[in-house]
C-alpha cells in the first residue's frame, strides 16, 4: 500500500483567514513595540513615580508579547525547528514575565489604592479650604462694612444723626427695601416709629411693647427673622407685590437713663431697648445670609455704644451750659458784691474821716473846757459831752471793725504783752461804773496762767471789755466775777476741740453775773449784729447790739469759741470764751518802769498842716494849752515853705481832699520834707500823720513814706500830752490801728 505524503489543498476561505491573522499579528507586534517607547518616555519625564521598576517589568512583558506575535508570522508557512524553538522560548519568557508582573501587582494595588485615598482626602481638604477662604473673604467683607458703618455712625455725636446715618448705610450696604427704628416712648409701655429709610417724615405710629414678636426679639442679642406681616414690619405698600421680602429684627440696647434724662427717652433706670427692623426687597428670591445677620448684630451694638457716647455728651453739654450759666450768675453776683463792698468801704472811709473830724473838735474842745474853772453843773455837762462823744467814737470803731471782719481785711496785730496787767486794766476801767451801781467785781487768775503771752492785746482787751461791760450794764444788783484760766478740753464747749502744744495754749475767760439773766430761747440772738433780745431791749441800758457780734468775730479770728449760759430770767448768766495765745519766751519779772514823761512843753515849736480849718484850730488849741508854740498851714506847699529846723514836730493831715490824688500825693509831702533836710538830718522835725483813717494800710503807707508816727482822730488833751511825751522820748509813735 502506497503512502501519500501530500497536503490537501486548503479552502480559499481558510487561506483568507490565514492572511487576516498574518496581517493582524503584524500590526499587533507593531503596537506592542510602540507601547514600551511610550513607557520609556513616561518614566524619563516623571521624577515622582515611586515604581519605575514595575514599569520596566511591564515594558518587558509588552516587548515579549510583541516578539511572540512577530515570531508567529513565520509559523503560517513551513518553518524549521529553529523557528519553533525561538517561538517556544519567546512564549515561555512571556509567560514568566506575565506571571511575575501579576504577582507584583498584588503588592502594588494596595499602595495605589492608598494613593488614591490620599488624593481624595486632599481634594476634600482643598474643597474645605476653599469654603473657609470664602468664609474668610465674607468675614473680611463684613468687617469692612462694619468698619465703614462704624466710622459713619461715630463721625458725629448727635443721636439723631447717628440713627439716621445707621439706616442709610445699612440700606446701601445690604440693598434693603426698607429699614426702620422703633424707640421706646417716655412711659416705656410702647414703641414709637421714630426713623425710617424711605419716608422723610414717618407717621408717629406706636405699637404695644408687650407684643410677642417684640418680646421674642428683646429676649436675645441675635438678629431674629420675623414675619413680614407683623405690626412692626408693615411699613411698605403691598399692592402689586406677589411675595414680600424676608424681614429681620434686632434689639438696640439703650443707656441706663437714671442719670441722663435725654429729651423723650425714658427716665427709668431699668434696661430698655430700641427695635431695628430690616426688610429685603419684595418679589425676589434673596434670603438673609449668616454674615449679613452678623453684620446687623454688630451694627446694632455699635449703635448702642454711639448712642451712649451721645447721651453722655449731651448730658455733659447740658451740665457745661448750666455751669456756664451759674458761673456767669456767680461772676455777676461777685462783681455786684465787690462793687457793693467797695461802695460800702468807700462810704465808711468817707464817713469815718468826716465824722472823726467833728468828733476831734468836740472831744478836744470838751477836754480843754474841762481844764477851765467850771461850776458843778457846767462840769457835769462837759463830762456828759465827753462820755457821749466817747460812746459815739466807740460805736464808730465797732462799725468799722465789723466791716473789716466781714470783708476779711482785718488782721490780728500780734505782739508780746502782760496778760495779768491786761485783766487789771480792764477792771480799773470798769470799776467806776460798777461802784456807781454798787456791783462788786472780783478777778480770779489761775496760778498756772502765764503772765507774758503773744497775741493781739488790743482785740483781747476789747473782747473782755465788751463782755464785762455787758455784765455791768445789764445788772442792777448782785455781783460779777471774772475768772481766767488755762483751758483744758472738756465737753462744755459745743463743737469745739483744742490741741494745745508747747508753743501756744488756750485762754478761757468766764464772766459770771447774778443779774436778771436771759431767756434760753433768746441766747442765739445775742451774737447777731444790730440785734438785742426782748429781755435786754426792755432795759434802759442802751447799746447798739454790736458788742457781742464783734466779740464773736474777734474770738473766731483768734481760733476760739464763745457762748453764753443762763438758766432763765432772774437767775443770772455766764459768758465764756476761749482764745488761742502764744507762750512768750520773755521773763515773767516785770520790766522796770519807764522814765517820767515830759510834762512841760513850753517853747516847743510845732507845725500843724490841716486843710480843715476847724480841725486845724482844735489841734492848735490842744498844743497851745500844753505850752507849745504852734504854726499852722492849710496846704502842702505852704507847709513846705514854712517848715524849718526850728520846728521839732510836724502834725500833718494825710487825707487832705484839696490835694489831687491825695491818697498818694499827700504822703509824698513827707518825702519832700526829707529832701529839704537832706544835709541837716539831725535838724529835721519829727513827722506825725494826723488821720481819721483806721485801716492798716494807712499805718503801712506812713511807715513806707518815712513818717515818724501816726495819730488817730479824735484826740483829747490827755491823749495829746501822752503822744508828745512818747514822741519826744522814743522819737517814734505808732498807735495800734
UniProtKB/TrEMBL annotation:
Residues 350-585 form the Histidine kinase domain. Its main location: endoplasmic reticulum. ADP binds at residues 470-473, 513, 529, 544, 548. It comes from the Eukaryota. There is a cross-link at residue 713 (Glycyl lysine isopeptide (Lys-Gly) (interchain with G-Cter in ubiquitin)). GO terms for cellular component: endoplasmic reticulum membrane. It is a multi-pass membrane protein. PROSITE patterns: HIS_KIN, RESPONSE_REGULATORY. GO terms for molecular function: ATP binding; ethylene binding; ethylene receptor activity; metal ion binding; phosphorelay sensor kinase activity. It is found in: Endoplasmic reticulum membrane. Keywords: ATP-binding, Copper, Disulfide bond, Endoplasmic reticulum, Ethylene signaling pathway, Kinase, Membrane, Metal-binding, Nucleotide-binding, Phosphoprotein, Receptor, Transferase, Transmembrane, Transmembrane helix, Two-component regulatory system. SUPFAM superfamilies: ATPase domain of HSP90 chaperone/DNA topoisomerase II/histidine kinase, CheY-like, GAF domain-like, Homodimeric domain of signal transducing histidine kinase. One of its GO terms (biological process) is negative regulation of ethylene-activated signaling pathway. The modification 4-aspartylphosphate is found at residue 653. InterPro entries: CheY-like_superfamily (IPR011006), ETR (IPR014525), ETR1_N (IPR058544), GAF (IPR003018), GAF-like_dom_sf (IPR029016), HATPase_C_sf (IPR036890), HATPase_dom (IPR003594), His_kinase_dom (IPR005467). It catalyses: ATP + protein L-histidine = ADP + protein N-phospho-L-histidine. Belongs to the ethylene receptor family. May act early in the ethylene signal transduction pathway, possibly as an ethylene receptor, or as a regulator of the pathway. This is Ethylene receptor.
